[in-house]
Amino acid sequence: MILVVALRHAFSIPAELPANWLFRINERTGLRDWARAVERFAVWCVLFPIYLVLFPLGVVSLGWGLAARMAALQIVVTLAVFDIHFYDWQQLPFTCSWIPGRKSLIGLVGGWIAILTAVVPVLSIFIATVSQITEIWALFGVLLGGIGIWLRLRRREGWGEGQLQYEDLSDGVPDLGISGIRHAVPDTAPVVRGAI
Fold this sequence. Notes:
The chain is an all-alpha fold.
């Protein structure tokens, strides 16, 4: 889960913003292909290698059958989380502007603490428990697989229809509460009286 969110964040950071003119010129010719390429890169070059590295450790510690069942459920859940986080993402990696600081640091840290201390352990215990019994694993595998396929189809149905978002436009620059303050300027210049 953390890697999927970190991947989306990393894709949002521009490498060199003026270089996106090439993508803007060719946007309509390959939008669906570009979205498919981003998805393939994220899934096959970032997410699955982690499972390939960790799967032998699971086999050694849990045995072949249990490790395979747990890995299968974890992959299904990871792909569902990927589809949720990339549902409305209409950008190409490293080509779009990014405005940092839209969310407060306290809110981000608090959200991540809640996810890491509540959601991730509960999900891990759920997957480990369900994987213990093959019949329950098969039932939840079909259920989670169906939800994953539905999320994937929902995310993919909008490919190629919208335009890519190259500019990250916020709602406006925060005014710090001083937008109503005006500097009073006199209408006429003061008359200077003196000797000439």
